[in-house]
Design a protein that fits this description.
heterodimer; A: about 220 residues; mainly alpha; about 80% helix; B: mainly alpha; globular
Chain lengths: ~220, ~230
């Protein structure tokens, strides 16, 4: 059983990645959004920014980029294909594969944002490796929350606005721990407990999503 | 009146908290001075709020398990009453903050926790109002309710450990917790908390019954439309 659901998960994930690759609009939209926000941030602060401001700016950008990128993760299932999905795939498995692809997307977006920030605004972090890892963990937490809220907003027939309203309050805990840990790392102080706190929050959010998703998915 | 004993108990305890809370002697602490009496009222709002939201999460869980419309009505009514207590807690806290910290709002982990919880429940109300189908509304809002409640509890328990709070008893501030909450204050504090929680449950009970009557009235008027086209 575990063997077969493991294989099913791999198949689903491959299918979702293939779909993303064929319909590049979501991917493209997220790339463009990240590029625009990083560029705007550099225009707003032409003289450069302090490490704290840089860190804060990065996390706010990451939060909004993730919401925009993952808001449409259940867009396809709004159509008749939803009926097909719900018969074919157990909801928990669908959640796992959607969370996986969203996590991949969030990680890629985060790396892209870090690169764009380094290019346009500069790279103040002292503990570079630690900072990157810490930020990636934070992005994982964002993906965990956003997979559930995106499912909720798709099932309620809401638009991007509803998605943002549902997500932002739930993102604040991860955002605050992320910002505080990131600031310490940017200034060269250790922040292991913050990274672990972020990781714990990501695990908790994904476990909750996994348990609750079947209820929101079936009618 | 149904449940007359606990309703009277609630009224008596709150009356006691009002009278004893304002008249009985309290410890003289720097900065806090007489504002320490706010403990009986401000903290009571939080206790009632958390109790109601815990109840709301419990009925959200029941809703997912049983699909009963009653569970959804109880869950949403508890979220609303809890929200009202949250606003009162915020206002009593802001008033207190003005006289002890000199500002109505400061950047403090406990204040952030409150603001975020209130935002979560506002989002919950927005979600409820944006779904027309009652069955689906019940289900989706129950999922959001449970998700938000667990994250909120973790957040208000965990995040304050990462930073010092200005609140009495945290980060070396003068406190009424532990050794400072003397026997006299306990005599008022605990009954007051029970009183506020019971009052919250009382209001919830009334709101739930109003909602139930509204639902019945709605379905009867729908029947009327069918019988007299």
């Amino acid at each position: 059983m575990i063997q077969s659901s493991g294989t099913a998960w791999v198949h689903l994930l491959r299918y979702l990645i293939l779909l993303e690759g064929r319909q590049k609009n979501t991917l493209f939209q997220s790339l463009l959004y990240a590029l625009c926000t990083a560029y705007i941030a550099s225009l707003v602060f032409p003289a450069g920014v302090s490490a704290q401001t840089w860190n804060g700016l990065l996390w706010i950008t990451l939060a909004f980029n993730s919401i925009t990128a993952l808001a449409s993760s259940f867009e396809r299932e709004r159509s008749a294909r939803y009926a097909y999905w719900s018969v074919l795939v157990p909801p928990a498995l669908l959640y796992l594969s959607k969370f996986s692809i969203n996590a991949l997307m969030a990680l890629a977006l985060t790396l892209l944002n870090l690169a764009l920030f380094a290019l346009f605004i500069g790279w103040p972090p002292v503990e570079s490796a630690g900072f990157v890892v810490h930020t990636l963990i934070g992005a994982l937490g964002f993906a965990a929350v956003l997979t559930t809220t995106s499912g909720l907003s798709a099932r309620s027939g809401g638009n991007w606005g509803l998605m943002a309203v549902l997500s932002l309050p739930l993102l604040i805990p991860g955002l605050l721990i992320g910002v505080k840990g990131g600031e310490r790392l940017a200034l060269g102080a250790p922040a292991l407990e913050y990274s672990l706190g972020s990781l714990g929050l990501a695990l908790l959010s994904s476990a909750l999503g996994y348990l609750l998703f079947p209820y929101l998915w079936r009618d | 009146m149904k449940g007359v004993w606990w309703k009277s108990l609630s009224a008596i305890l709150i009356l006691y908290a009002l009278v004893a809370g304002l008249l009985l002697p309290v410890p003289r602490l720097p900065i806090l001075n007489e504002t320490i009496r706010n403990l009986y009222f401000h903290v009571g709002m939080w206790f009632a709020m958390l109790a109601l939201w815990a109840g709301s999460a419990w009925f959200a869980f029941r809703q997912l398990k049983t699909n009963a419309p009653e569970a959804d009505r109880r869950s949403s009514a508890a979220a609303e009453v809890g929200f009202a207590f949250g606003i009162l807690g915020l206002l009593t806290g802001m008033l207190w903050a003005q006289f002890t910290w000199g500002k109505f709002w400061v950047n403090d982990p406990k204040l952030n926790g409150t603001a975020i919880s209130l935002l979560m429940y506002l989002a919950y109300f927005v979600l409820r109002s944006s779904v027309d189908d009652a069955h689906r509304r019940a289900r989706l809002s129950a999922v959001y309710n449970l998700f938000a409640f667990v994250l909120m509890i973790v957040f208000i328990q965990v995040l304050p450990r990462f930073t010092d709070s200005l609140h009495p008893g945290n980060g070396g501030n003068p406190a009424f917790s532990q050794y400072d909450l003397d026997a006299g204050m306990r005599m008022v504090f605990y009954p007051a908390m029970v009183g506020w929680i019971l009052l919250g449950y009382w209001i919830l009970d009334i709101l739930y019954r109003v909602r139930t009557l509204e639902t019945v009235a709605d379905s009867e008027s729908a029947l009327d439309l069918h019988s007299h086209p």
